Amino acid sequence: MSKFRKKGEKELPPISTASLPDIVFMLLFFFMVSTTMREVTYMVHIGLPKATELSKLEKKSLVSYIYVGEPLLQYQKTFGVAPRIQLNDQFANVADIQDYVIAEREARNEAERPMMITSLKVDENTKMGIVSDIKQELRKSAALHINYSSRKK
């Protein structure tokens, strides 16, 4: 009866990798769905001030952002260290704000235009003079819904 026995020990069968592509694609799909892409590259340093009374914006698609702060190190050689205004991905002057608001308003649907919000993301060390100038330009372009971004205290 020994002719059915093999000499030596049995080897373990190799691990099946048939389901490995399914797992990889499932992880890839999860990260593609849950990751948000940054829309604007920051060119200014923004340390948001702390606040106690905060409210969350309902529809972020209706928000246009204006960034104000010191230029980052790679831009300081060209633009200096004084606080600058950033609209989308470029530096701008106070006079450019009206054109920016009009372009943002035209990009929206007709029904959404009255609900458009302009959010100011201003560094906590920035002087209020530039913020007042921005607010005056926003008034001239009839952008009266203004939000100040801050972080929780």
Automatic annotation (TrEMBL):
Cell compartment(s), UniProt: Cell membrane
Bilayer topology: Single-pass membrane protein; Single-pass type II membrane protein
Transmembrane segments: 12-33
An example molecular function term from Gene Ontology annotations: transmembrane transporter activity
InterPro entries linked: ExbD
GO cellular component, one term: plasma membrane
UniProt family annotation: Belongs to the ExbD/TolR family.
Protein name, as recorded: Biopolymer transport protein ExbD
